[in-house]
Design a protein that fits this description.
The complex is a heterodimer of chains A (298) and B (279).
Chain A (H helix, E strand, L loop, with lengths): L1 H39 L2 E2 L7 E2 L3 H6 L3 H15 L1 H15 L6 H26 L5 H8 L5 H4 L5 H15 L2 H12 L4 H9 L4 H12 L1 H17 L2 H7 L11 H11 L3 H28 L5
Antiparallel strand pairs in A: 1-2
Chain B lengths: L1 H5 L3 H27 L4 H6 L11 H9 L2 H31 L6 H11 L4 H14 L6 H24 L5 H8 L4 H12 L1 H16 L3 H6 L8 H12 L3 H31 L6
The chains are: A mainly alpha (298), B mainly alpha (279).
């Protein structure tokens, strides 16, 4: 009995020792910054020197700031593209899983942009879609006279939609395919046989067997898409549009960078960061909830 | 089914057209950079889509000679190697504890880690910047590495923990009877068993660090200390360089990830689905 108790205690202290490096790093570089941010959002601080307490002034200013509302509107537009960003990879995965000729090749190629990373993707698309870029030239060769007036990223009306298609749909495609392919590989094939006997067509099987069978993975992917939009977009915006034209592709992340590190209004930027924190916390809570429900946390 | 498939099948044609279209958009950016990097600026201005008339190497020569790209590469290689080593140790230690060991407040700690891994770099950037300047980690590769590990390790830990949860407990129980302490258990028994997943997170983690931008942008202000992704991101604005030259720089910096992808495709695919795929 005593020995068993000692074993349990030993295991506990072992676990805490093992967790220590991670927790230490997280507390210093993530948790403390998140908390300190709340305090600095109540001050004017330039990013250097001492801060001056101003209470809620920054927050009052946020709600009168066009850039803030532009950012929210843009995030809203991006979120609207998420269903497309889920449906297309789901569809491709469902096609590839049937062992189409060359499916491994397609799978590898579709994932390639993910490997390049957002800095390279953003830089390249900013060139490709620019007024003097190859897209304009291609359209001209196809006989579109006004090709250089199209300027997809330069028009404030189209810019955010182009960004959404590139970021939410295109850049996540490879990951989505692989992710859903892996999820689909665990579906019991007798379900398909049964559906085939019932005379179900391809789409019927897709919606009545495939989709319900991988609902956990779809929920998880949905949450990941939200994370990408709210919390992982900075490098892409920085290299693709730099928030422009005007504020047409501003996001909260990019706004924090511009106000804090470019205009040296760090206190004000912190109030944006607190608001972004709230959004992210909701998403995080959702994610943890889904993992718990799916029995992935024990 | 077989016999039908041999005849012309409209549905299949549509599917192939759709897949070829997607293949085209996926490959075009890097293909465009590739052909542009071998053109002279004059030729690029004249023609953006055609193959180069004459394949010239001068853009690459310029990138290495004038843009310090070799220096950036060295900085990236150094920081990513050190970062990855630290990352593997931290993720495995914590993943081992969370995946296999039993202790109080496990679920709380696990939720805590998952919760804090979500925040974007920009939410914590200003305070990370302040801490690093206070403790002398500004313009320091060590500072960058520590911040990277703190930021990326929670996810790697989660992946490792799901792997360790599938390993039978009897393995450590017998090790304990042999008198192995916790570090021996980790390095001699657990990590060797988990090698496939260790390889996976090593690649996923190093790709994340190789392409990371925000922290490098804020913490590294000395141009000679820049890692590759930062060097590349500021290239356009800082030098106003011609697109063929920029393309050469892009290809140079994409080379290592692309080579990794070529050889370790399956590991990368595995890493992107590990821990979160379920029916």
């Amino acid at each position: 009995m005593l020995k068993k108790k000692m074993m349990i205690q030993q295991e506990q202290s072992d676990a805490y020792i093992l967790l220590l490096p991670l927790l230490l790093l997280m507390v210093v570089f993530i948790v403390y910054p998140v908390l300190a941010n709340f305090y600095y959002s109540l001050t004017t601080w330039k990013g250097f020197g001492t801060e001056i307490w101003v209470g809620l002034k920054n927050y009052r200013r946020v709600f009168h700031d066009d850039k803030f509302w532009y950012s929210l509107k843009n995030l809203g537009v991006l979120v609207l593209y998420i269903p497309i960003g889920i449906f297309i990879p789901l569809l491709i995965a469902a096609i590839l899983r049937e062992g189409l000729k060359g499916w491994m090749f397609f799978r590898s190629v579709i994932y390639l942009p993910t490997i390049l990373g957002y800095v390279i993707l953003g830089t390249l698309f900013s060139i490709i879609l620019s007024q003097s870029g190859p897209l304009t030239e291609m359209l001209k060769m196809m006989g579109v006279e006004d090709a250089n007036k199209i300027n997809l990223l330069g028009q404030s009306r189209s810019a955010i939609h182009v960004v959404a298609l590139l970021f939410v749909v295109f850049s996540k495609l490879g990951f989505g395919c692989i992710y859903f392919l892996a999820a689909m590989s665990s579906i019991d094939s007798s379900l398909y046989d049964a559906a085939a006997i019932d005379g179900a067509g391809w789409w019927q099987r897709f919606f009545s067997v495939t989709v319900p069978s991988i609902s956990f993975s779809m929920q998880f992917f949905l949450v990941l898409s939200f994370i990408e939009v709210f919390a992982r977009m900075y490098s892409f915006i920085y290299t693709l549009t730099y928030g422009g034209p005007g504020f047409a592709t501003y996001t909260l992340e990019f706004g924090i960078y511009r106000q804090g590190f470019q205009a040296f209004k760090m206190g004000y930027a912190s109030s944006w960061a607190v608001i972004l924190f709230v959004f992210c916390s909701l998403i995080a809570a959702l994610q943890i909830n889904i993992l718990k429900k799916g029995d992935q946390l024990k | 089914m077989r016999t039908i498939a041999k005849r012309w099948n409209p549905a299949k044609t549509v599917i192939y057209i759709f897949l070829i279209f997607i293949t085209f958009i996926s490959l075009y950016p890097i293909f465009f950079a590739f052909i542009s990097s071998f053109k002279s600026t004059a030729e690029y201005t004249f023609s953006k889509t055609a193959l180069p008339d004459q394949w010239i190497w001068s853009n690459y020569a310029y990138v290495f000679r004038n843009l310090k790209i070799a220096r950036y590469m060295f900085n990236s290689a150094l920081t990513v190697t050190v970062g990855m080593t630290l990352y593997i140790i931290v993720c495995n230690a914590a993943g081992f504890a969370l995946g296999m060991l039993r202790f109080k407040y496990k679920l709380t700690i696990f939720s805590f880690i998952l919760f804090f891994q979500i925040f974007p770099q920009m939410v914590i950037a200003s305070q990370v910047y302040r801490i690093c300047s206070k403790i002398g980690l500004m313009n320091s590769h060590l500072g960058l590495v520590l911040v990277w590990v703190a930021y990326f390790a929670p996810f790697g830990t989660y992946i490792m923990s799901t792997y360790y949860a599938t390993i039978p407990r009897s393995l450590i129980e017998s090790a304990r009877i042999d008198g192995a302490n916790v570090f021996q258990q980790l390095f001699k028994i657990m990590m060797p068993v988990a090698i496939p997943m260790v390889g996976t997170i090593a690649i996923v983690g190093s790709l994340a660090m190789w392409t990371e931008l925000p922290f490098s942008l804020l913490l590294i202000q000395d141009p000679s200390l820049r890692p590759l992704s930062l060097g590349l991101a500021v290239l356009k604005g800082e030098h106003g360089i011609p697109i063929p030259t920029l393309s050469a720089a892009i290809l140079v910096s994409a080379a290592i990830p692309l080579i990794l992808y070529f050889f370790f495709q399956n590991k990368i695919h595995m890493g992107s689905t590990a821990g979160s795929v379920k029916g």
